[in-house]
Design a protein that fits this description.
Blueprint: E1 2-5, H1 28-33, E2 47-52, H2 59-73, E3 81-84, H3 90-100, E4 107-110, H4 123-134, E5 144-148, E6 151-154, E7 159-160, E8 169-170, E9 178-181, E10 184-187, E11 210-214, H5 222-230, E12 234-239, H6 247-258, E13 262-267, H7 282-285, E14 288-289, H8 295-307, H9 313-319
Parallel strand pairs: 1-2, 1-3, 3-4, 4-5, 11-12, 12-13, 13-14
Antiparallel strand pairs: 5-6, 6-9, 7-8, 9-10
Protein name: L-asparaginase
GO biological process, one term: asparagine metabolic process
Enzyme class: hydrolase
């Protein structure tokens, strides 16, 4: 078990409050003590990798996580890895690990919407379920998983959809992979896109600068121009609808592409598929469509592709 902080390790002075707490302050040993049933599921070796609020996650920590997980999975006495994480950027970390961890043993992320001190804290059960999934003989080879609220999600598909509900994570386009309840783990489908050992990517020592901009009514080009001037190598657009972009923004991005900046069209809408527009847009502008990836996961994939000096970016987004 690798602990990174987050709400699951959060603490507040008032048990009736689920906001205004301090994230990442409860150590992993104390987390384990709150769930005695874990001892009947697995023998656990715990490490405190970080103690942060996941809104402050960094690419450097991603590199640390991925390399430590690969090292652990290479050990004969390790059958799986559970990562405790904050909910804010869990989907980004999970997708990054999904594309970079090479071992075939289970890797399961979990988190909580309520701090450990709250009434009806959801962290202990999520933690128990995550360990149960990681210990399951059926969980290997399915890529990085997220166990949350009795459901098992693929790291590629899952996203946070609520600011407060304990069922905050959903897989809008594809649905869950399966469920875990009372020690029972059942998978109903598998992720078909390449991941883990079948992925061509690895974490980097130096990450390219990739940022996200949004399209909206009366959008300006100020942010795009500033990013290009700052040396950004990639820009992901959280577009409207099918990844559409304001005309002013489109002009700025077309100029950015001519200056060697990779531009990916995603959507700010919660579900759907950004279709490649061909001659009408992408071919003319030199942009890439993100498919079903939201802007934040599209940024992760673009960072990996640019770090690997991959040229055919549309192939990458169509594949992963």
């Amino acid at each position: 078990m690798l602990a990174t902080g987050g709400t699951i390790a959060g603490s507040a002075g008032d048990a009736s409050k689920t906001a205004g707490y301090k994230a990442g302050v409860v150590g992993v040993d104390k987390l384990l003590d709150t769930v005695p049933a874990l001892g009947s599921v697995a023998r656990i070796h715990a490490e405190q990798i970080a103690g942060i609020d996941s809104k402050d996650m960094s690419a450097a920590l991603w590199t640390t996580f991925a390399r430590r997980i690969d090292a652990l999975l290479a050990q004969d006495d390790i059958d799986g890895v559970v990562v405790t994480h904050g909910t804010d950027t869990l989907e980004e970390t999970a997708y990054l690990l999904h594309l970079t961890v090479k071992g075939g043993k289970p890797v399961v992320l979990t988190a909580a919407m309520r701090p450990s001190t709250a009434l009806s804290a959801d962290g202990p059960l999520n933690l128990l379920n995550a360990v149960t999934v990681a210990a399951s003989k059926d969980a290997g080879g399915k890529g990085v998983l997220v166990a949350f609220n009795n459901q098992i999600h693929s790291a590629r598909d899952v996203t946070k959809t609520s600011m407060y509900a304990v069922d905050a994570f959903r897989s809008p386009e594809t649905g869950v992979l399966g469920f875990v309840q009372d020690g029972r783990v059942e998978f109903q489908r598998v992720a078909v896109r390449p991941h883990t050992g079948a992925s061509e990517f690895a974490v980097a020592d130096q990450w390219p600068m990739v940022e996200i901009v949004a399209s909206y009514a009366d959008a300006s080009r100020v942010v795009v121009d500033a990013l290009v001037a700052a040396g950004a190598r990639g820009i992901v657009v959280a577009g409207t609808g099918n990844g559409s972009m304001h005309a002013t923004l489109t002009q700025a991005l077309a100029e950015a592409v001519k200056r060697g900046v990779a531009v990916v069209r995603a959507s700010r809408v919660g579900s759907g598929h950004v279709m490649r527009n061909g001659a009408a847009s992408d071919d003319a502008l030199g942009t890439v469509s993100a498919g079903t990836l939201n802007p934040y996961k599209a940024r992760v994939l673009l960072m990996l592709a640019l770090a690997a000096s991959t040229n055919d970016l549309q192939r990458i987004f169509d594949t992963y």
